[in-house]
Predict the structure.
Amino acid sequence: MHTTLHPLLATGADAAPALSAPGRAALDFAGLRALIAATTARLNALGLGRNDRVAIVLANGPEMASCFVACASAVTSAPLNPAYRADEFDFYLSDLGAKALIVERGSLSPAIEVAVKHGVRVLDLVVPDGAPAGAFTLESREPHAGAPAAHPGAAQPDDVSMLLHTSGTTSRPKIVPLSQRNLAASAQHIARTLQFTPRDCGLNIMPLFHIHGLIAGVLAPLAAGSQVFCTPGFNALKFFAWMDEARPTWYTAVPTMHQTILARADKNREVIARHPLRFLRSSSSSIPPQVIAELEQAFGAPLIEAYGMTEATHQMASNPLPPAVRKPGTVGVAAGPQIAIMGEDGALLPCGATGEIVIRGANVTAGYENNPKANAEAFRDGWFRTGDQGVLDADGYLSITGRLKEIINRGGEKVSPREVDEILMDHPAVAQVVCFGMPHAKLGEEVAAVVVLREGHAATERDLQQFVAARAADFKVPKKILFMAEIPKGATGKLQRIGLAAKLGLTG
């Protein structure tokens, strides 16, 4: 196992395509390695070296991918959502202690003004005319009169390679430091799980400020010498045209993206037939088994559901590729770190028992930054507590029964919102659903749901309540069902149950 990115990225053949993009020539692996070396030298000359924090605010695309890989190889990369507003950039740039900010030349991002206010050096990413996808140079907006980097050169195994914040749905976002060792381990775990080869090409539609896209979408395939086709971000209207151009063998997405693609798949059967996929991958939130079956039928390929989180540098468990057994409704077997189920007393539980999912291994963060309280709560006897509730079966397949913070407590009766989701997804009129807890004066919480109906279908709140009541105990029946054109989602396309009641004005 490699423990740093440099040897990891030495795999691809010099002339093989590494990064490509719509309407652009591909950057080969020789070019990518030269770019990493040149970027390292440039950052070092500007006084930025190992463990110095460099924020990256770039739109999705090949330059975001290459800039992340180059920065993660030399300094501490901190990718940020380019859609943030000034107040958010003010929080993140100061919280990270960023020394520099990379933006594309001509950017109007509010991050620039915030960086100047905090004395953070602004670096322009410049793409030369006619350059292949991902090629760039860095130019400082102010002349650098200081000394070169104190710690130059390629990052070492225990250097911090990337900083990301947790989503902070219930508390102040926490900083997750991920080392070279963490990134290298996770990339190799994913490459092994998905059996990447140089013949593969991934169609990346995931945002590249989020662990899923950065590690599974970019770093893991590059580590196996395969190609990444970098889109400007998810666009269901362009997905099948990109398929035609990229000729991919796989793609990874969150369930809401898969469902939007599925809605257009029938009209694009010829494109699918021209470019048969080896597999589809889903992660970041649960995908209903009904949707897995429809996607597999539409694409004629297996869907591999995986389980990941930022603190584990993404992947923790995954369903295996055929001919090994896939179990829809589970997130598969341990695919990197060790996985166990822990009881409330800290004891590890046997197969079949429900408890908290805990992990340990080379891809797991050593701990949150400057947050001893969070670390005391998150680690127990060397295991990291995921905050998810689950059960392992006799074959080692993991089922997630709920997020501990998302479990709805209705007057002492515990309801897993995922269970109600899956019941509602069986209704012929339901296309998408997310259940969540809403405040209730006497019970504490009551079950609520947002539903998106299938085109051409109709159902009332009462219809759906009766449908759930026929299959589950009365206390699990949603008291309130809202019908919407789309499910409210977070910045990365994930369903966010926590805080949804407040967002929708359901205050009890």
Q: What stands out?
A: The mean pLDDT is 94.
